[in-house]
Amino acid sequence: MSELFSLFNYWVVVFLMMCGFYTVIASGNLVKKIIGLNIFQTSVFIMYISVGKVTDGTAPIVSADFSVYSNPLPHVLILTAIVVGVATTALGLSLVSRIKDAYGSVEDDEILDADSDERGSK
Amino acid sequence: MIAHLPALVVLVPLLAAPICFIFSRSPAIGWVITVVSSWVSFAIACVMAVTLLNGGEIQYVFGGWAPPWGIEYVVDQLNLLVVLVVTGVAAVIFPATLKSVRPEVASHQLPLFFVSLLLCFSGLLGIAVTGDAFNLFVFLEISSLSTYTLISMGKDRRALTAAFNYLIMGTIGATFILIAVGILYMLTGTLNMADLAVRLPSLGDSRALQVAFAFTIVGVGLKLAMFPLHLWLPNAYAYAPSAVSAFIAATATKVAVYVMIRFLYSIFGAEFSFSEIFVQWLLLPVSVCAILFTSVVALFQHDVKRLLAYSSVAQIGYMLLGIALVNQTGLAAALIHLFNHALMKGALFLAVAAMVFRVGSSHVDQLRGIGRKMPWTSAAFVAGGLSIIGVPATVGFVSKWYLVLAAIENGWWWMAAIVLVASLIAVVYIWRIVELAYFADSEASETEVKEAPLIILIPIWMLVASNFYFGIHSSVVTRFAEGAAAMLWGQG
Questions:
Q1: Size of interface A-B (CB pairs under 8 A)
Q2: pLDDT digits (tens, 9 = 90+) for B128-145
Q3: Considering the entire predicted model, what is its pTM?
Q4: What ipTM was reported for this prediction?
């Protein structure tokens, strides 16, 4: 039981990851897909950030009073990954808005129908 | 000076992109900047090739931080081959882009088109030269995000949904790679590839390591369109602007294959990948399915770009097959095919781009009798097709020769037979187009179709010529591929 609890950051990560992943796969709404993708990515960010914690460590600012510091590297890495995540979400949503202009819908099945209608009429 | 080249080859297009953006009022200036930076990168790659002719590596350390801590760029014979492919194909294709995409991309997007193209180009090069696992992820996303943008610029509205689906699949793949890199960092405390390679074997039988391995294979598999994960690829290549299809078909998946090889052989090590995880028993059926199944699917396509896209998935199957044979010849075959396939698909897609430029569509019905109207372009398509089939004196023959040799080295005659059967299927799908182009009656069309402009025709024929040049003087490529294969097996 204690092992279960000591790994709780991973439980949070896996729960979020599966929520996001499920939304991407199961949702027919393109906006929801992008948001699911964002949650999926965020879970990985949390995984990185949580492992940077060092027990009894303090903020990684060099000081004579402390000898144990948290590991700042995962945080820095994730700063980059967050930028990538924001860019992906922004690009995804702008694609959705262009799809809305072109098809008049953001639902997966309606877009598929619109394309097959077009093919049928040709 | 030589020591700075690995960084410069990436930085030239990366810095050219914002300059291109500043001049974003004029597509012509953007085009000139794009072309010049691709030529500079290619020149740098050639200088590195001369330096590394007999093995060795060029190392560049960023900001003076010594390797396991800082980010380093390392170029050895393996990634040099990839850098040569990417810069070479870019240097040939980019001059044709402005003319070719004008009818396809909305004019207000045209300047930004070149910015995206440069970012994609530098991202692909960054993946190839970096020696840092996290840096690889960053460049992967730079190239992917710009590729989504490029694809969405296609004139058909289905380009938007194709780009969207690729964005979803690509981001899942990249995030999987991010998870794998994170687990590796937790296990070893390092992100440097060479350092990872040293530290991972001492971990022994670790569940976390196996999980990281699985995430890597699936993540990279999505990026390189490994057989069941290839669903994003046909639409993306079919609806992207034609010149973009030519560039990404020739380079993007090849770079992903390189990443696969780098992770399997250098980082995890051949010992772990093939003797403990037995990844070849995953790659083997997957590659055989890709070779046979998608070749057959290609037979039934009504759009030439889609046909070539399915053929690409099959050709990627050959590369994975080379890896899955688990011998040095097989790895060399994968690397040789990586190089050669870029040349053939570059030529084929660019020939189709020229047809789309004149005809306005790549649907097979529209291309009836094209061989009489655009003789030079169609001849180039036939030549590229011969190379895909693997006719002697083309690069396709060299690849298949090595692949069959590697299969026989394992005593797998049936595998050699599969490679030959798939080549026969390729004969059929290429012949279908050839028949339409030369023997079918052309439809009466209101617009007169004439030969493609020289600015597109010359790049096509340069790629075709390279197909024959490297098919006859194959030692130029095989030398690097065999050197790289020997180096990777030496480490394993």
A1: 65
A2: 999 999 999 999 999 999
A3: 0.93
A4: 0.93
